[in-house]
Amino acid sequence: MSKPIEHDYIGLSEQQLPSMEKSSDKKDGLHLKDTELRLGLPGSESPEREDHDQNVLSLKSFVSGAKRGFSDALDGGGNWVFSGGSGGGTEGLFSPRRGGKNNGGKDLSGSDSGSVLKDGAARKPSVVQEKKPQVAATSSHGNGNIAPASKAQVVGWPPIRSFRKNTMASHPPKNDDGDGNAEAKLGSGCLYVKVSMDGAPYLRKVDLKIYGSYKELSSALEKMFSCFTIGQCGSHGVSGGDGLSESRLIDLLHGSEYVLTYEDKDGDWMLVGDVPWEMFTDSCKRLRIMKSTEAIGLVTRKCLLPNK
Amino acid sequence: MQKKTAYSFPDEILEHVFSFIQSVKDRNAASLVCKSWYEIERWCRRKIFVGNCYAVSPTMVIRRFPDIRSIELKGKPHFADFNLVPDGWGGYVLPWISKMAGAYPWLEEIRLKRMVVTDESLELVAKSFTNLQVLVLFSCEGFSTDGLAAIAAGCKNLRELDLRDSEVDDLSGHWLNHFPDTYTSLVSLNISCLGSDDVSFSALERLVGRCPNLRRLLLNREVPLDKIANLLSRAPQLIEFGTGTYAAELRSDVYSNLAEAFCNCKELKSLSGFWDAVPAYLPVIYSVCSRLTSLNLSYAPIQNPDLTKLVSQCPSLQRMLVLDYIEDSGLEVLASSCKDLQELRVFPSDPFGEEPNVSLTEKGLVAVSSGCPKLQSVLYFCRQMSNAALVTIAQNCPNFTRFRLCLLDPKIADYRTLQSLDVGFGAIVEHCKDLRRLSLSGLLTDCVFEYIGMHAKKLEMLSVAFAGESDLALHHVLSGCESLRKLEIMNCPFGDKALLANAAKLETMRSLWMSSCSVSLGACKMLGQKMPRLNIEVMDEKGPPDSRAESDPVDKLYIYRSVAGPRFDMPPFVWTMDEDFASELS
């Protein structure tokens, strides 16, 4: 395997192709400090980025913690290095054979990953969603890695279309045991349902399988639709964390303005929350955040029970 | 003036010559020869392909090409298929339909992919294009059966209606009744995506019965097995057929009717559907198997030995889509039986399971690569891979044009050596000189990207996830892949440097998608300022970028070239980094 050729980046104008210089003073890996980047148009000044390297360094480590939400079963997988800016330098963060730039399940099991992020902007890694732990995650290749208890599912991986996912969700995969495992396996997969909100210009979709309770679903929906109700809240945009706007939104949802309803398999519109969670996910076809004024006359499951 | 008459062709002759030039590239080249060729060409161009509906505006298209008969538009980025693009992002077709309604009354063909199509748009289509013959809605959404009813009622010359993989709001199955009784011109109908109440079977039967030219019929899952025989007997001329649900209690009358119906379809070459398939009814298609060139069993939970037995009866197969129930053993049989195989797709039956539920490994793919010399296109989901296997595959199949490998654990190493898979994928790009599309997975360092930049000169589309270590990787790709048009990246440690150093490259590409990477807001703003012919769109559902620091990474980034400028239909969670944005915030 040939070693990668080191390059210096040279600023680029719209007409020019990048010209690369080979530098032979580095042996392995790319040292961030040694590459200098400018984007220059003829006659213009490129912005000085003195502290570029530090920014990039801390940026990368910040991000690596947030983004690497996918636990991997690899050799030496215990390299959970992702502190905010120090720690091991670039080699430790980006060494070729280790994949451990991630929270794995350690930080994600049960708690919000916000604790990992030390920088100012508290960002929940939006790509990482926690899967209901059905089976203890073990590496199928048995490299003796300590895999986390709950394996986080990442949005977009594996790359399978929703149509296929939803189709497959309704027949169980092959299993030799018959009963025991079938339940567990049926639980994995996705169940995307549409969520509409009265007054919002377009629909959203949620995967019901990633939530374990009404509370989780409710808070996810609040976050998702907060941008539509902010007008009513009177604040601009959603602040990064649990701010005033969110609690106002909760008031809106749980207060008098909106109710959460769903359409069940029979086509009836019901209020969310009456039946056990599993029963709800089994029968829910779509969700609607409805104005309370319109929800008068909606049935609850309790009313229907005698007939069923 | 004399010079002109001495050296120029009459326009009509040039136009006639141009009519033989079908390829868009050649047409574009011809239009650049001189002004008069540009003029003549634009008046006689009939077919338009717009790979990104925001790259150009409908007004611009209409201004240049006044007489278009066939249009193809694509909307959302490819990763929208995997739920990475939130709803409401865009890709609305209505503005196009509205403008074209007045400009192209003779429009015959509309093909849309990943666009938002409303009932209003469909109604407008039905009203404005009386000569519409082809309507293809591939992975579209936003419409209901009401819109379909409008099409059925209004498009009297419709030949092809294809709703492939679209999301349709089911309101009523009676939209099929809106095809008038006098309507007989249907040639191709794909309703495989429709839900439970969307299709009135009796209307379908009558429609099929009165359309003697029907060649392609793909049903939806809700059509029961015992109705198929009747349907097929009304359309024995079918070339391509997709069943509905393929499960039922075994009944001899149903079985024999079905077997006979299939037997009578002498031209049947392609089968699909097979939802919920049970082995009992598989043999009814045996009479067709020897002729089959395309078989899609990717929704069928059939397992070995029934699955392998079926495959072994199809020696003419060119295209095979199947679940991983086929296992390595089945693929070995495929390799020995189907020497004409060109395309193979193996999907995972249990993608989220922790343990493998089937014995499908790299060995199956190696076997097919070895046994099928014409293999060109592969999509393969599995759980383990080795460099050795990939090298073998590359050497066996230098003719690959599309190679997509999806390891379910996206950063898994070579299971034999525990090394990265750089060498394996390197072999693929080195041996397969005609490779146009590549999807990577597994443990990958910057090395593999160096190989790609060095060898993949014809590569047009590259999909990357959880790979690479530094910006060098991205730089290799952007600087080395001369034919690159689409690059989509998720969860890789790529930041500003490579992007900014290769900014000009982005204008030669259709689009770049980067999500969960390390590109800073500052870099996006800079690109927005410096590259006016690129639309730099930052997507973040947590709030506007101005609430965060310049060095903060953006959540999702979508960059595409455009002559139409920034778009105006963005939802609240998308910001465009144009000059105004950058300057007002700095």
Quickly list its features.
heterodimer; A: 308 residues; alpha+beta; Ubiquitin-like (UB roll); two-stranded antiparallel sheet; 8 helices; 26% helix; 11% strand; globular; disordered N terminus; B: 586 residues; alpha/beta; Monooxygenase; 21-stranded mixed sheet; 23 helices
Short description:
Chain A: Residues 22-37 have a biased composition (Basic and acidic residues). The complex is a heterodimer of chains A (308) and B (586). Chain A is of the alpha+beta class.
Shape descriptor of chain A = globular
- Going by CATH, what is the homologous superfamily of the domain at 189-228 and 245-301 in chain A? Phosphatidylinositol 3-kinase Catalytic Subunit, Chain A, domain 1
- SSE string of chain A, helices as H and strands as E: EEHHEEHHEEHHEEHEH
The number of distinct helices of chain A, counting runs of at least 4 residues, comes to: 8
Q: Which pair has the most extensive contact?
A: A-B, 100 and 98 residues
Helicity of chain A, as a percent range: 25-40%
Main sheet overview of chain B: 21 strands, mixed
Oligomer: heterodimer
What would you report as the Rg of chain B, rounded to the nearest angstrom? 26 Å
Distance between the termini of chain B: 57 Å
- Structural class call of chain B reads alpha/beta
Main sheet of chain A: which strands, in order across?
A: 6-5-9-7-8
Largest sheet of chain A: 5 strands, mixed
CATH class of the domain at 189-228 and 245-301 in chain A: Alpha Beta
Beta-strand portion of chain B reads 15-25%
Q: Which stretches of chain A are poorly predicted, pLDDT < 50 over at least 5 residues?
A: 1-150, 172-189, 230-250
Secondary structure: number of strands of chain B: 23
| Low-pLDDT sequence parts of chain B | none
Q: How much is the average pLDDT of chain A?
A: 53
Protein name (chain A): Auxin-responsive protein
Family (chain A): Belongs to the Aux/IAA family.
Pfam families (chain A): AUX_IAA
Main location (chain A): nucleus
